[in-house]
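User: Before I run my own analysis I want an independent prediction to cross-check against. Here's the chain; please return only the structure tokens and, at the end, one sentence I can use as a sanity check.
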Amino acid sequence: MDPLSTILRLSSAERESKGLAHTPQEIFQQPDTWWRTYEKLSQLQPELESFLKRAGVHGDRHQRPSVLLVGAGTSDYVGKSLATLLRRSWQLDVCAVPSTDLLTCLDDYVVAGKSHVWVSFSRSGDSSEGVAVLQAALSRYPEIHHIIVCCNGEGRMAHIVSEHGNICRVILGDEVNDRGLAMTSSFSNMVVAGQCLANLENLKTYGPTLEAIVVAARKFLPAAAQLAEQVVAEGFSKVCFLGTGALQGVAVESALKVLELTAGRIVTFSESFLGVRHGPLSAIDDETLVVGFVSGDARRISYELDLLEEIRNKKLAKTIVVIAPVVKPEHQERLAKISILLPLEISVADVYRPPVDVVMGQLIGLFSSIKLGLRPDSPSPSGAISRVVSKVRIY
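Assistant: Structure tokens:
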């Protein structure tokens, strides 16, 4: 039995006593919840299509709006994991901007005479910055159209009312409103919701892709849990996560998961495969675990393999772990020589992989937290961070 399943077989009382009541289950349940998110977006499809049409998303190409994907922390990384797909699908400018930046620099991101659509992501809908930014935008820029994707129907963001009718809400199921401190189900389900938005004009064509990632994740979870527990047992003091494009969003989110779940006792950082050479490579040493989310694109993987071989040849890292899809045999051979290779049984574009690949980062964070004697559901004994950032003074 894999170590995640072993945890889930503990009695409720034992899991509660160890701070494992929520986080392991919230990681494990993810593939089953993605279909329900898809069904939710399918029900909202007519409303969302009408809203996007009014916002000009599918109008004249020269007059289409700029799209900002807004969130803080993990919710920001949802946007980073979706920006490429939405840019391709909607054929307009899309960028992920943290709500923490918008709170202090709102006017820097709104171009006069240009139409805008904001897609705001939030697990709780109650973070101080998220609510304040949305309220400020509605007050100062009432022409902006907003889609709010939230996991908490009782949160303040879910109840903000616009007199101009320019807000559309997507409230996901309560089961993905994670009770643990670290966002896991909420991250992957908001990404799936964003993938549905990208394919909204013909949502049924996204169904086979979603089925592929659900099947892959169910097979991937036990193997990933086994490997995560193994590398955590071997020990490391730092983790570097690498990814390209949408998978760089996964790398950033994975780095945050390990940092949060270990109360900062394990140092983490993330970069693109090509970007890591420009300084961050100096931080990789014999106490560093390197985790690479390798692309399925033939050109990208060539660059990525060269970087991983450089790390191996220079003997920089303690361990290299690679998550790779089905790729050419010669690439598989090179990967096997460089690293511990965990094959991902999936045949979809990189832009659809984030919900599956992020599981590895979540599991490394979980087992690292357990090894350090922390409580994964509430891993910050000093109270430095909390489940909802809600006590920020707004000016």
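Sanity check: The CA atoms of residues 130 and 356 lie 27 Å apart.
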